[in-house]
Fold this protein.
Amino acid sequence: MAKLSDLIEAFIKQLINDTDGTIEIQRNELANQFNCVPSQINYVIDTRFTTERGYYVESRRGGGGHIKIRRVNIEHKGKNFLMHIINSIGDSISQQSAYVFINNFVDYEVISEKEALMLKAATSDKALMAAPVEIRGYIRACILKNMLVSLLV
Amino acid sequence: MAKLSDLIEAFIKQLINDTDGTIEIQRNELANQFNCVPSQINYVIDTRFTTERGYYVESRRGGGGHIKIRRVNIEHKGKNFLMHIINSIGDSISQQSAYVFINNFVDYEVISEKEALMLKAATSDKALMAAPVEIRGYIRACILKNMLVSLLV
DNA sequence: TATTATTAAAGGTCAAAGATAGTCAAAGTA
DNA sequence: TACTTTGACTATCTTTGACCTTTAATAATA
């Protein structure tokens, strides 16, 4: 028996293919279709629809809540480059390293000056001041990847 | 009844667009149109048409009472407007509130869709996953302000 | 007529109930 | 060991309703 998570993954990918790259699902409904607990949907999303794999995920709780999954376009050569970078960023990264990446993107004309400014603003030590030093790098890496993927949308 | 509040919000915004920026509604009548309790109209107004988001709301009770919503005109002062918003953001903010702010910037054409997506990517719960829940709001507020300031450059 | 009391017609508040999604770690499996 | 499945508990957002306040219109009174 194929693993449930794989089936769910395939199902979601099919959905995305059937549309133009963006879908909106309801966690409970989907869990129901697959006869599994709702949190398994989170597991699938967390392990298969990551920024590293080129997906951008948003969600909302409460009445009318939903999970939105977008597959970004990585066909373009510049974009492909970004995808590689995203994959090469580890779980944690210093401000300095992040800035080096960002400056490189500008040099290679993958992003604009303005976008670079925004990226730096979001990943600076100053912006992350409220976070304990030990975890700043992790948060920064996550933010950086998320933003880069958003540029591919 | 999914996303009723969103429908009401959209309806009101449409009304505002159709006029010159000021509308006058009757709470009960509107609630009737949407088949909801009157207080839901308050909920929508309280969460989506606040001062910080660029709306000015007045109301009057009693016979002939009404709610007047005015969209603040910021055409001549995009940067001042941003500055004002930055100052109105507290030390901590939820993802939802941040997104409402961001969506409003787009409405007001203070930022582009692409910039909005970057802002959302950087301030989402997903991006801040690595941070303890208790301090996420603080980090988010800081990032948001920093990024907005970067847009002023 | 002018003033005051009453009533009806709005809108406001707040908290409980409902509807989703997220987290985390234990248990299961390959 | 690494990945998957479960479920109890948590966080967030929306909907609903009971009760409160304000104001205009009207009736009653001096």
In short: The beta strands of chain B are 22-25, 55-60, 66-71. Chain B has two domains: 4-71, 79-152.
